[in-house]
Amino acid sequence: MSELIFHHYPPSPFSEKVRIGFGIKKLSWRSVEIPRVPPKPELMPLTGGYRRTPVMQIGADIYCDTQCILRELQRRFPEPTFYPGGADGLPWAVNRWTDIVFDAAAGVILGAAADQLPEAFARDRGRLYFGPDYDFERIKAQLPHNAAQVRAQLGWIDQRLATGRKFMLGDAPGLPDAAAYYLVWFVRGRWQPGAEMLAEFPALEAWEKRVAAIGHGKPTDMNAADALEVARAADPNTPEHADPRDPQGIKPGMNVGVVADVDGGEEPVKGAVRFVDRESIALMHSNDRVGTVCIHFPRVGYRVTPA
């Protein structure tokens, strides 16, 4: 099996979710550090222009979005499972929920730091997270509201853990722990009053320490040029697959575009469909830097349209 190559940067909250996933599964992986804002010239040849972080690479197969990455890790490495206690299905709903909570947390953290953000970073994240009409004065004014939203939902996690569970699903860590932990990691690490908010939740804080102790598996550094060469030297390993029940009628060979289903100012990634099912879609894409790659996306949270 080809190495797991993870394109990320250390302060990335979504990357932390996957890094904890690597730790739960005790995996070895190669770490490629990428820029925090575009352009990302050593990443986008792999992703067909997709600019979000993180991305996982296995040979010439490229996995975009944490949902897609974590699902592929569970498929390839079923044990230790992300679904301890027979919780199949439910963890993905928790994962989706915490990504929605992240929007409020981003409002808190970027609102609090608005006057200190580097101009390029503020412009990029403002457009990405808050749409074409973003206004940091309005985001700052909404900070108390967003903080109240985050606090209430952190309280739900604390209630779950206050029953005596070591982890969200019981005695063993699983996907819900990675999905919830990255929010706590983000709030504590990036917002000065975060520690005070979290101190209200003793069960959550004790759990936070247990999840942090899981670690990130076994990463070793890799430079971006070597990762590009890995893709160029490999062929995609994704089989052709059709879904006769697909509501959009998407079939292998169709040319489509895929983009996050929010108004973040992003361009669709375009290519010919190689694989489609209820959970994911994969496109074949070629360029001079890496040859042909197969780029995978989740269906939930992404829009697929004819190219």
The main β sheet shows up as: 10 strands, mixed
Number of strands: 10
Order of helices and strands: EHEHEEHHHHHHHHEHEEEEE
- What oligomeric state is this? single chain
DSSP helical segment count: 11
Write the CATH fold name of the largest domain. Glutaredoxin
CATH architecture label of the largest domain: 3-Layer(aba) Sandwich
Concise account of the structure shown:
It contains 11 helices and 10 strands. The protein has helices at 13-24, 44-47, 66-76, 90-112, 119-130, 136-141, 143-161, 175-190, 194-198, 202-214, 224-233; strands spanning 5-8, 28-33, 55-58, 61-64, 218-221, 255-260, 269-276, 280-287, 291-298, 302-306.
Question: How does this structure look, described?
Answer:
The chain is an alpha/beta fold. It folds into two domains: 5-80 and 219-306, Glutaredoxin (3-Layer(aba) Sandwich), CATH 3.40.30; 90-214, Glutathione S-transferase Yfyf (Class Pi), Chain A, domain 2, CATH 1.20.1050. It is built from eleven helices and ten strands. The two termini are 33 Å apart. 41% of the residues are buried.
Describe the secondary structure blueprint for this structure.
Layout (H helix, E strand, L loop, with lengths): L4 E4 L4 H12 L3 E6 L10 H4 L7 E4 L2 E4 L1 H11 L13 H23 L6 H12 L5 H6 L1 H19 L13 H16 L3 H5 L3 H13 L3 E4 L2 H10 L21 E6 L8 E8 L3 E8 L3 E8 L3 E5 L1
Helix pairs in contact: 1-3, 1-8, 4-7, 4-8, 7-10
